[in-house]
Records
---
Amino acid sequence: MRDVLMIGGKEVTSRLFLGTGKFSSHRLIPEVIRACGSQVVTVALRRIDPEYEEENIVSYVPGECILMPNTSGARNAEEAVRIARVARAAGCGNWVKIEVIADNRYLLPDNYETVRATEILAAEGFVVLPYMSPDLITAKKLVEAGAAAVMPLGSPIGSNRGLRTRELIRILIEEIPLPIIVDAGIGRPSEAAEAMEMGAAAVLVNTAIATAGDPVAMGRAFGLAVEAGRLAYLAGPGKTHEYARASSPLTGFLRD
Amino acid sequence: MSFYEVCQRYGKFDFDSFFKQVTDADIKRIIAKSRLSETDYLALLSPGAEKHLEEMAQKAHRLTVQNFGRVIFLFTPMYLANYCVNQCVYCGFNIHNKLERKKLTLAEVKREAKIIADTGLKHILILTGESRRESPVSYLRECVEVLIKYFTSISIEVYPLEEKEYNELISVGVDGFTMFQEVYNEEAYAQFHPGGPKRNYRFRLEAPERACRAGMRTVNVGALLGLHQWRTEAFLTGLHAHYLQNTFPDVEISVSPPRMRPQLGGFPPKVEVSNKNLVQYILAFRLFMPRGGVTISTREPSELRDRLVRLGATKMSAGSSTAVGGHSAGCTQTGQFEISDTRSVMEMANMLYVQDYQPVYKDWQTL
């Protein structure tokens, strides 16, 4: 059976979503996409410049990818909504990653404003993927608001600190009937694999790839790790035990 | 509590004694910390920290790439008017200086805008001298209404305004604000500003707070280096940025470390600030505020600016002119000061590409 991820009526086979804000050259973006196989690419509307083709970041995203503009810079729901509308009017499609951040030290999202923005944009026909601090109640509200997926952070954006919110993400995976996409904080391929083994539907990575010594090679490593983690999840990992399990148990004779 | 009260806490502080007590072990411990206190930042500005610049640079570079990526944001200044009623002793626009005073007409603003927009830049910083009669808020507003057709981000560097005036400019499209306090030491400030409304130290010091309250997205502060002891001025600038970030967490805060340049009037720097000093300041600030922006202007020579790309800088001006109408061909106006790095936007972009950095021409979208 084909293992595909359905979001907003579209089918994707790669479960690695790619962020684009920190690459040393726009020209690296298509190379990294080729290496990692990503089919969903997020770009901040604030960086999109249709009037300057050569420096327009969108020009470097291959046409077959799903472009997911994000609302970076939005400080409240109203700004996020306006950014999303501008992006759609500029021809960037109807997918949008909601980012509402009113804290410039940790870049932690404002869950309340994120729910509000999701509600408005989903009602307008957008495919809304909200970035959020992992919280079960907020996630349930996002479901009600019409989100297409829920994107909890693993740790603060750009921190490369890995899955610090592991337990909370585990609860979302168990309880929320939408794809859970771990966004932000994943610093190493092994952490991406771990998120996938837990049952995350996908991961979104930018800093760890863009700021690596060799972004193309790191992109490939992440692509492989996400695939391995997904395969492991589907294969059903064996249970873990606190103590060793003897292959010749002491009470085996009692079974006779 | 306003930043004025924060500044007052350091009014009697004995900086020299503090610096003498800083040890190598202190500096190493501070560099290893993930979150620095105010006094940690001050210690990194001490003479004793100069021996540790390479370790500071390595960490500053790593933090900058982690937080901002391998990118440098580009912008250029546009001088709208040079009428000024102040007597700042170090400034070419000083009311007593003999230079042709000029204010751009809206047609001239449009002409300048077209020339700048053709370079690909989408972020403009507009400046004036201080003259509420010649460059009133209504004039600034009219200029912004012209510029908004060409740029997606407009910042102002003008005389201090009231909060409702900032509100008015934001309502027509201004999103960024720059204000150099020039000198944080209040006594020294009085010496360098003998006349005009700029004598009001506190009104200027609290302008960034008013701008943040009014809803500016980006706020940039700085001291003019060369007027007073650079270590304490750098410290108070960093403290100002820190105060603003804590008080207004949704505003993007940055600092500029401008060094004095030759200007009409010929006022020489009172204190020397070497390249090494400047680098120490930028590195210490980066370690203190890993997410704070650092803006480097064309006051600095090209060779140094090229190096600062990897030492914590996040934003740079390019293709600059400090004269009113200076972007238009054939302009022979006297500028506010002499710039040092005269490279065009394209030349700056090429330099960044060579260094494996992406120039960013657009980083905000007018909503």
---
Amino acid sequence: MLQHLLEVAIEGILIGGIYALFTLGLNMIYGVLEIINFAHGEFIMLGMYIAFWLFTLTGLHPLLSLAIVFPLLFFAGAAFERVTIEKVIKAHIFIQTVLTFGLLLLLQNLAYFFWSADYRAIRLNFPLISLGSLHISTPRLIGFIGSVVTIIILHFFLTRTKMGTGIRAVDENPIAAELVGINVKKMRMVTFGIGTGLAGVAGVFISLYYYIYPTVGSIFILLAFIIVVLGGMGSFVGSLAGGLIIGELESLSALFVGPQWKEVVAMVVFILILLFKPTGIFGTGGRK
Amino acid sequence: MVRSELLKVKNLDVKYEDVQVLWNVSLEVNEGELVAIIGANGAGKSTLLKTITGLIEPSSGEIVFLKQKLNGLLPHEIVKRGLSLIPERRELFGNLTVYENLLVGGYTVDKEELEDRMKWVYNYFPILKERKNQLARTLSGGEQQMLAIARGLMSKPKLLMLDEPSLGLAPKISNEVFKLVEKLNSEGITILLVEQNVKKTLKIADRAYVLENGKITLEGESKQLAENDTVKKAYLGI
């Protein structure tokens, strides 16, 4: 029993790392553009499908497909931002919501149209990893390590490069950023691209162990919302901690309450946070 | 000495929605000058500076800087041309370190020049060097104002515009800010200063404009304005 509990706990951390990755993308977009990208889960879905088709049609290993997924979804996201979101950047939140929600429906239905509602999976045989008598899911471990590496690269970009520092400045205060000479419009485009690119990368990692179907993104966007609220809106550390907590919670509740209840448990936690700590663990409660 | 013209604002009208806030405002700043805009709260001083930097679009009128029209340019493009605004209430990047605030202030400066610029600024503000790894929001009010000015200087501006730099500061620190502005000007930086502290401002400025309800009602040498009866009554409390 103890061994099983440990395995479940480890699995929670592993998937939590991947959750943290796609949540960071959503949170960055929110911080810099101040819009909620409801279609974020669909970029995860696209990442999964691209990995699947590259693997199925050309035999390319999903991890190698990252080199295609990130740039492709970066440019797709950046282009979408420039052409549509930029036009409503000062509009009412309702209009912005309709736009990104519309993108969600569009991408889901395109996926149905081109790839049908079939459940698909990448069938790769990974060697089982054992730590003593503990068995660890290799695809999840790979996804976790990949996510950690991606998050470290992202952190390096945001803190050590000129553009990254500029993005953080826009996140803090867009008007002051414009006044020191930062092209805020360009930063919004780049940030949206990075956010969707990260969603795609997370999608590739998830495709190593999860089914792929057109509406798969809706599970993850729900988790991402809960994680953002739990960790705090606009908080980098909050997304990391929130991802791990929700991943752990999902794993443990599947064990103790039953797998069919794991989303219910997550939603209950979501409501409890909203009731008792609406700014989240690391949140400051809105910046302006 | 004939000084060449740096900034010229011609017949500027500005509206927020349907409410007009600036009426036919014209002013000029020549190279090396310290020019002040004084006036009461709500006279439109900040609006004027925001319009010059491109944050607000004028409904009519012209802004010419170094003989080129600025109308229609975005603020980040205007900064590149050598115009820097230190906004009201400082608008620092609170969760960035002092060093990062300065780094971002020099966003338009080449990498090679950035180091030199940083040294130059640290030389002016040794306290910022001491606190370079501190988050900007943890600084005291006076230090934050120094950082805001330092950040504005990072872009090597030909014209530095300051919006109420003494606002909310203790008298002693506010005096330091005025001394600093004077010193920067004496070292060749052209300055356009917006202030409510008329007395101190007229002491350091070469010339000044009086803005009242969105219109320029008086202009002239600071010394003459300080003797002007209307200015004395309305702003100096004499």
